[in-house]
Amino acid sequence: MDQENKERAPRRRPATRPMAAEPMTLTRPVFFVGFMGAGKTSVARRLARTCRVASVDMDTYIERREGCRVKDIFAASGEEGFRAIETEVLRELGAAEAPMLVSCGGGVVVTPENHGIFEDAGFVVYLQVTADEAASRISDTSTRPLFQNLEAARARIAERLPLYEAVADATVDTAGKSVPAIAREVQRVLEKEGILCPQPK
Ligand SMILES: Nc1ncnc2c1ncn2[C@@H]1O[C@H](COP(=O)(O)OP(=O)(O)O)[C@@H](O)[C@H]1O
Ligand SMILES: O=C(O)C1=C[C@@H](OP(=O)(O)O)[C@@H](O)[C@H](O)C1
Ligand SMILES: [Mg+2]
């Protein structure tokens, strides 16, 4: 199984995984941003399961919509082509009638127009990671055309840091933490902000 499929394959539920007794509700869409390997896809998926709210991964959504892999969109249309699709999809998901947890791709912040969509539509959670830790988490970089090597990743992350900080409504450092621990931390933030609430009876 390739890395991409391994990352996206449904995992067997561990016996100890906590489930919310009742489904919860989101008052606004929540966007996860951060560099490749920060855990945006994994954390949003985990939180969606434990709180029983809807989630969508932008890269998966784009792949289904376009009928091809992200890396093939980059190969055929370049980064510019991918960014144009990404903005259309972000706008669509931000305007969805029922708010969702949305895990964005790591480069969503490089398109200035997307900052306005974040501001208008929802709440942005920035998951921090260093290039070194991200590299240690991503065993196969072939599915991420912009994660070529560690040196390039360090330079790219440095360029993007001010952009992540500019859009963030909340920031969570992921260093040395497990996905469930990060998801719990994000849950606490969203509950405190009144974005994640018990469903009205
Ligand atoms: N906190 C973490 N600790 C260890 N591994 C992680 C963590 N978060 C994500 N991973 C792993 O890193 C890889 C990339 O995670 P993913 O959720 O796809 O990140 P992103 O969507 O931010 O690029 C996956 O194999 C995932 O299991
Ligand atoms: O950082 C980037 O520019 C990208 C990140 C990827 O998503 P993840 O951050 O989920 O890996 C994916 O959208 C594409 O390969 C471009
Ligand atoms: Mg992802």
TrEMBL record:
Pfam entry (one): SKI
Region (Disordered): 1-20
EC number: 2.7.1.71
Cofactor(s) this protein cannot do without: Mg(2+)
Cofactor note: Binds 1 Mg(2+) ion per subunit.
GO molecular function: shikimate kinase activity
Pathway as given in its UniProt record: Metabolic intermediate biosynthesis; chorismate biosynthesis; chorismate from D-erythrose 4-phosphate and phosphoenolpyruvate: step 5/7
Cell compartment(s), UniProt: Cytoplasm
Binding site for ATP: 37-42, 144
Key words of the record: Amino-acid biosynthesis, Aromatic amino acid biosynthesis, ATP-binding, Cytoplasm, Kinase, Magnesium, Metal-binding, Nucleotide-binding, Transferase
Quaternary data: Monomer.
Protein name from the UniProt record: Shikimate kinase
Organism expressing this protein natively: Adlercreutzia wanghongyangiae
The organism's taxonomic lineage, starting at the top: Bacteria, Bacillati, Actinomycetota, Coriobacteriia, Eggerthellales
